[in-house]
Amino acid sequence: MARLSLAVLSVFLALFPSALAKNVARDANGVFSTCNHDFAFTWDDGPYEWTEEIVDEFDCMAGKTTLFVSGTTGGCIYSPDNVSRLRYAFEAGHQIASHAWRDVDMNSMTNAQIDEQIQRLDEAIIKILGVRPKVFRAPATLTSSSVISYIQSKHGKTIVTSDAPSNDAAQGATGSSVYAFFQSLAAGGASTRRISQSTETSQAALDGMDQGSVEVLATAGIRLVTVAQCLDINPYETVGSYGVRDSSWTCDGTWTAPATSTNCQQTYTAQAGENTCSKIAAKFSGLSGSDIYFANPSLNCQDIWQWTSICIPPASGTTTIPCSQTYATQPGENTCSKIATKFGTSAELVSAANRQVNCQDIWTGTPLCIPQATATTSSSTPGPTGTNGCSAYTAQAGDTCTKLATKFGTTVASIKASNPSWLNCDDIWANTPLTICVGSTSTSTSSASTSTSSGSACNAYTAQSGDTCTKLATKFGTTVDSIKASNPSWLNCDDIWANTPLTICAASGSTSTSSSSTSTSSSNGNNVCSSYSAQSGDNCTKLAAKFGTTVALIKSSNPSWLNCDDIWEWTPLTICVPAGATTSTPTDVQTSTSTSTSSSATSTATETCVTKYAAGDNETCITVATKFGLSATDIFNANNFLNCNSIWKFTPICIPPGGKGCTKTINSWPGATCANVATAYGTTESNVRFWNDFVDCNSIWTNTPLCVAH
Asked: In this protein, which residues make up the domain named NodB homology (predicted)?
């Protein structure tokens, strides 16, 4: 899986908090020189041969940095090595910002010369990373108010300087002098808020880092964040996919300005709510937010006014990679090259179509877009299948329940009843798998959804670990063919992922009910089964006593990897009890102490972990303990299976009580992002991002444990 900010991805998003926090660091020209909060350690003049070493140092210190990159200062930005370095930093969740195409003084430049310095670099970063940087620092301090105003108004840049330059490129600078400078800043303690400035091509800067210039800040309790995080602003104007190398990836020759309104396919008037380039692009097939910007370079892509006239360019065919199919990787298929070989395409196309993955380390079971050579057109209208009148449909950009009801001759109520309860009818994401049922009468309640028709009953169902079509057909009294017909064609009946949204259409005369916390059905067999989320301290013996069933039945109802003596908290389980038995219905309890009573036993489980933390790169017990205000011994005692000197990335670690870390955790829901999690729990997106820096903030996996309070 990609080294995300698992922020990329997620981890920077196109959407940050829309309201700018009160900025105390901006001068009369609107230029920022220091942070609103925390410490932004920044680097100029990369990418360079030391970029990856810098990234690793900040990862080791559980911090983030900002790289102000140039088109040519550290070598041509398009060179394979520099492309690799930029993607390495980006995928690790660090911010990429603009430092102009060349190392020049922009104060006396014409507007056209300024355009080339900024737009040529923007174009390169969009090709390499799929993002357009929002933040800009000039190679030489800007003193011209007119130049500053032009860059802000024409290019929409947030201009940043520094209130803590390290002077590592000055004559006579050494590693020791650089370290001493940051040591003096660290003396201010955790409340220190600065934007420091280092030079990526400076040997003194690298030597200072080796002596501890980053570590001295981290160990002083100073939180190391990106410029965007410390200013509470957007890091990027647009976010898309990696580009595919072609002949335009060069630093040689004369640069040609991007297309303008002279090659518009049409002119579009922005409507209410269509206030970003990404939203405009979503209305037109084959376009990205970057395409909209380059056709309209005067736009502020994060704040488009209603009624603005916008040039809509022809679809380029390069910014959006069409998929021929979605494929779940198998064991051993762990690189883009292997996938490309299997499907007769190129590794670069696979990478461009799947920006979220690390092409050198793809996890088994990862869903990948398999790119097709050219875009294809397919009917968006699902054809009724079977006798139930329901068929699978993949949502298109701009779909709503009202539009779909009109399009397919059904009702909004029917669409709601036939799909999972988390579906937001007013904001359906493109590519969401839906079930469209025509001709059925549907009823629903707040706790469960039930749909009935003269021919069948269809329900939304969230798949459990270990489900297959055969098991589900038995469980709900239907057939494998009916399940296949009622769900998207990509469904693998032998390997259904936990939490996959499915539609189950039962045979005529049967009724099935699904709810958010339990899924109970009288099946053709002799058991009644329900979903259950494991609590701390659970084992098969306790669960059997708790719910009036047997250990053998729990084992047979769940995947073979289940360790009955050591069930991890939040593991999704299926609890089956003999039909007719008196049982205690499983419920998902998230409190620290839970008590459940059944006919046979009463069980009390007490939490020993304040939260669970997924280890990052190069973690040790010391680095984890530092994050949560604990000692390394505390971490080891709560996780005695760990090798404290070398913890594998993504290892789930129990964080015991007593520290200053996370005080509340939740499990993410389908469609969760850092932004909507922050809104739901009354905190800021930057906090959610920092507390959970192992996630992709734009696409958080369902049921991921997240910290939401500190």
From this structure: 37-225
* Cβ–Cβ < 8 Å for 516, 542: no
Whole-angstrom distance, CA of residue 687 vs CA of residue 690? 5
Superfamily designation of domain 526-606: LysM domain (3.10.350.10)
Residue with the two structure tokens 């930029």? 86
> Is 141 a residue whose pLDDT tops 80?
yes
Residue 180 or residue 653, greater confidence: 180
Distance CA 703, CA 710 (A): 20
Burial environment of residue 90 by CB neighbours within 10 A (0 to 12, 13 to 18, 19 or more): buried
Smallest CA-to-CA distance from 566 within 641, 624, 464, 495 is with 641
How far apart CA 359 and CA 348 sit, in angstroms, is 9
Q: Where in the sequence of the chain do the CATH 3.10.350.10 domains occur?
A: 323-371, 390-521, 526-606, 611-709
Residues 6+ apart with CB under 8 A from 569: 534, 535, 536, 538, 609, 612
In the 3-class helix/strand/coil scheme, how is 586-609 assigned residue by residue?
CCCCCCCEEEEECCCCEEEEECCC
Nearest alpha carbon to residue 504 among 478, 532, 530: 478
Between 699 and 54, whose confidence is greater?
Answer: 54
Residue 585: both structure tokens together: 């219905």
Contact, 476 vs 507, CB < 8 A?
no
| Pick from 558, 458, 474: nearest CA to 514 | 458
Please tell me the predicted confidence (pLDDT) of residue 153: 75
In angstroms, rounded to a whole number, what is the distance separating the alpha carbons of residues 271 and 267? Answer: 13
Judged against a pLDDT cut of 50, whether residue 610 lies above it is answered with yes
Is the confidence at residue 449, as pLDDT, over 70? no
**Locate tokens 């549907």: which residue?**
442
Tell me, what's the pLDDT at 311?
Answer: 81
Q: Length of the chain in residues, anyone?
A: 710
What local confidence, expressed as pLDDT, does residue 497 receive?
Answer: 72
Are 105 and 147 in contact, with CB atoms under 8 Å apart?
Answer: no
Return phi, psi of residue 13, to 5°: -115, 165
User: CA-CA distance, 358 to 3, in Å (whole number)?
Assistant: 7
Would you tell me which CATH number, out of the four given (3.90.79.10, 3.30.390.10, 2.60.40.780, 3.10.350.10), belongs to the domain 323-371? 3.10.350.10
Show Cβ contacts of residue 345 under 8 Å, excluding neighbours closer than 6 positions.
Answer: 370, 371, 373
CATH code 3.10.350.10 for 611-709: yes
Protein fold of 390-521: Membrane-bound Lytic Murein Transglycosylase D; Chain A (3.10.350)
Which is more confidently placed, 33 or 447? 33
DSSP string, 329-350: PPTT--SHHHHHHHHTS-HHHH
More confident residue, 497 or 114: 114
Residue 299 tokens, joined: 């736009």
For the chain, what percentages of helix, strand and coil (3-state, to nearest 5) are there?
25, 20, 55
Q: 């709601």: which residue's tokens?
A: 416
Please, are residues 473 and 514 in contact by the beta-carbon 8 Å criterion? no
CA distance 439 to 442: 10
CB-CB contact of 458 with 485 (8 Å): no
Q: Which tokens is 5 given?
A: 């900010």
Residues paired with 371 in a beta bridge = 323
Residues 511 and 537: beta-carbon distance below 8 Å? no
Architecture of domain 39-238: Alpha-Beta Barrel (3.20)
Q: How far apart are CA 597 and CA 603, in angstroms?
A: 7
Give the chain's radius of gyration (CA, Å): 27
Q: Which two tokens stand for residue 364?
A: 């088994």
Cα of 51 vs its chain's centroid, Å: 23
The DSSP annotation for 73-105 comes to: TTS-TTSHHHHHHHHHHHHTT-EEEE--SSS--
* C-alpha closest to that of 5 among 694, 698, 702: 694
**Dihedral of the CA atoms 194, 200, 201, 202 (nearest 10)?**
40
Residue 6: pLDDT over 70 = no
DSSP SS3 for 44: strand
